[in-house]
Structures are given as C-alpha cells and as structure tokens.
C-alpha cells in the first residue's frame, strides 16, 4: 500500500484491517522505491494504521525479524515505542486461539518501553 493510495489507507483504517509490512522485501522487489526515510511505513505509523513489521523471503534476502525491526528503527525512523506498537498490533491480529493470543498480548503489554 503506497502513500498515494489514500482510499486504500482510509478503507484499512475505517474497517480496522491489519497489514503486515515487510520493509526490506518491499524495496528489494521494487514495490517501494529505495528511499528509506520516505517508506510508507513511516506514514502509516504517523496516521495510526493498524500494521505490524514482518519479514518476507528469508532465504532470498537473508533477513530476520530482528533485522527488519532494526531497519525500521535506524533507516525509516520509527521509535522503539512505535515498533512495540506495531508488534502489539500483530499479536492482536494473530491467527491463533484466544487463550494463546491473550498470553502473547499480555507479555507484550508488560514490556511496553518508556517514551
């Protein structure tokens, strides 16, 4: 979802859909230009879009979730608290039973970083 797609962004926000963002893959596959400070993730975080950071094609890109989070923090500019919020969003959107989801969400909530 690129920034120019305001309709899609509003639809996602208004219907509380969850998006997974794979920043390295999005650039390497050409779906987003190689300009980290203007990556759509930055705008999504500012606009309160429900998304999480994930990874894609680890065998092709030799990446991990940790490397994606580091990239989003150091090159795109999201704060540690914004990264925490992204991962909380992901846990809340997870496809697992309610008890497991609650346990995961509770653990993430307990680890909220200070601003």
What report would you give on this structure?
It is a single chain. The protein is mostly helical. It has one domain. Helices cover 57% and strands 5% of the residues. The protein is built from seven helices and two strands. Strands 1-2 form a two-stranded parallel ribbon. Helix 6 runs antiparallel to helix 7 (98-110). The longest helix is centred in the C-terminal third of the chain and has 13 residues, at 80-92. 20% of the residues are buried. The model has no long low-confidence stretch (mean pLDDT 90).
Could you spell the SSE succession in H and E letters? HEHHEHHHH
Structural class by SSE content:
mainly alpha
Largest sheet: 2 strands, parallel
Major sheet strand order: 1-2
Poorly predicted tracts of residues? none
Helical percentage: 55-70%
The figure for the number of domains is 1
If you compute it from the alpha carbons, what radius of gyration comes out, rounded to the nearest whole angstrom?
14 Å
Cα distance, first to last residue?
Answer: 28 Å
Number of helices: 7
Shape: globular
The number of strands is 2
Compute the average pLDDT. Answer: 90
EC number: 3.5.4.4
Enzyme class: hydrolase
Cofactor: Zn(2+)
GO molecular function: adenosine deaminase activity; metal ion binding
